[in-house]
Amino acid sequence: MATVRLDQKKRALVRSIPSSYTKALARYFGTGPTNVDLARAQQQAYVDALEANGVAVHRLDADENHPDCMFVEDQAVVVDGHMLLPTPGHPSRVAEQPPIAEFLMEALEGVQTCTMGGEARMDGGDIIRLGDLFFVGRSSRTNDLGIVSLASLLEFFGHELRVIDIPEGALHLTSISSTPTDNIILAPEGFLKPEDFGALPEGCEIIWIPDEEVYGCNTIGLPNGKVLMAEGYPTVKAALNERGLETVEIDMSEIRAADGSLTCCSIFY
Ligand code: CIR
User: Fold this and answer.
1) Pick from 183, 182, 240: which is nearest to 213 by CA?
2) Which of 15, 134, 197, 248 has the most CB atoms less than 10 A away?
3) What is the model's pTM?
4) Domains of the chain, start order
5) Residue nearest ligand 1's atom 7 by CA
6) What end-to-end distance do the CA atoms of the chain give, in Å?
7) How remote is the C-alpha of 265 from its chain's centroid?
8) Where residue 6 falls among pLDDT bands split at 50, 70, 90?
């Protein structure tokens, strides 16, 4: 998940892929998944990569009634041991949340949890974190009231939040960017501009990636310093390797087919 710092990435939650996955929402990168077995094999490779690089993974059972249930990132926002349970921005995904919330409340014993009310909407996939600076996407899934809820949680910690308008052609902020380390942002040059992020803390940089590799901008920084990335994005890989970051690549084709990126498939807690 995109809301924890590198040093907070020891445990991750994933959820199995239901047979109904072929009905998952797909409007952006994906034309819709067709091969559930391949998606499951790719998810297993993802879990194996996390575990091989220092993350303990817990897996929840799939929910056949919710084709998108593997995309757990959208369902809970964990920040410094506190948790915000957003009301997801797509109605078909709202009822995915209870087992995820239940698991996290038990795992994070005594966790302070807040929920959203009224018309507030947010998908966890709209948040990225650069050290203690947060960015949230105002998107088709995340509205201003949702952003207000996140802002009050972050205010409690004294963390700054900046809002970025997500262009029409993208689902979430994490669909088009990520922070592979606590001082690097990857972003596609035709989707976002330097002004969207504003002035960054000293020592931080944005690596601008050509639009053909927009999907590759979503990466996961691992606790051992390596970076998990999707296979097939040579500019992203070269940019990370040039900065001394070792990359681990996995095939994400059937996850991408449902508009899912690497971060969408887990919650670090
Ligand atoms: C959806 O449209 O909600 C799913 N098919 C994909 C969710 C991807 N999640 C994410 O970017 N955090």
Assistant:
1) 240
2) 15
3) 0.97
4) 6-268 (3.75.10.10)
5) 260
6) 8
7) 7
8) confident
